[in-house]
Design a protein that fits this description.
Structural class: alpha+beta
Helix content: 10-25%
Number of strands: 11
Strand order of the largest sheet: 1-2-3-4-5-8
Oligomer: single chain
Strand content: 25-35%
Largest sheet: 6 strands, antiparallel
Number of helices: 3
Shape: globular
Mean pLDDT: 86
Radius of gyration: 16 Å
Low-confidence stretches: none
């Protein structure tokens, strides 16, 4: 995973999410790479065929028909971890299924459908996630129309690279509202 900012701005000591304009994720399977530039819809380019596909996020709004990823294991203390688990249990009961995020960026890309296929996932929830770990995926997903916020529904764009955030990425506003309803103010 990589994210880029304007090279002329590369003199500052502290950067926030909002400073980055390009995101790139190259999955381990070496088939191709995902990329996005602010203001342009994310794409997937195949290494061998050089074909360039548009990426889509789900239009599904019913939680009982879609899955989400979660990463609650980066919490800095047992108390925060327990609180995060408690907050996510209602989501686990309402949505059809969930997956565990392992931090490689490939899992995030499961929120995308390629070649007009429907993605299997509609959201990501992370507790105390390091901003630099979610920078490139959140840039790609937000350029596709996903909603990215903290657990209270607030923007995380001004978060600094070394910050930790409780993050929600949802494919659309209805799914986002559903998640915020469960997570708001929990940790």
């Amino acid at each position: 995973m990589m994210a880029f900012t304007d090279p002329l701005e590369f003199t500052r000591e502290v950067y926030s999410i909002n400073d980055f304009t390009v995101g790139l994720i190259a999955p381990h399977h070496l088939e191709g790479q995902y990329y996005a530039i602010k203001g342009i819809r994310p794409r997937f380019i195949h290494y061998s065929t050089k074909t360039d596909e548009s990426l889509n996020i789900t239009k599904q709004t019913e939680p009982k028909k879609i899955r989400f990823f979660m990463d609650l294991f980066t919490a800095q203390s047992p108390e925060v971890h327990a609180s995060a688990v408690d907050a996510v249990v209602p989501v686990m009961k309402e949505w059809i299924d969930f997956g565990r995020y392992y931090g490689s960026g490939v899992e995030f890309m499961s929120l995308f459908g390629r070649s007009n296929t429907e993605p299997a996932y509609g959201a990501y929830i992370g507790a105390q996630q390091k901003v630099d770990n979610i920078l490139a995926p959140s840039l790609l997903l937000s350029q596709a129309g996903a909603i990215v916020s903290d657990w209270n529904g607030n923007s995380i764009e001004d978060s600094k690279l070394k910050d930790r955030v409780n993050i929600v990425i949802a494919a659309n506003s209805i799914l986002h509202e559903n998640l915020i309803l469960h997570l708001k103010g929990k940790i």
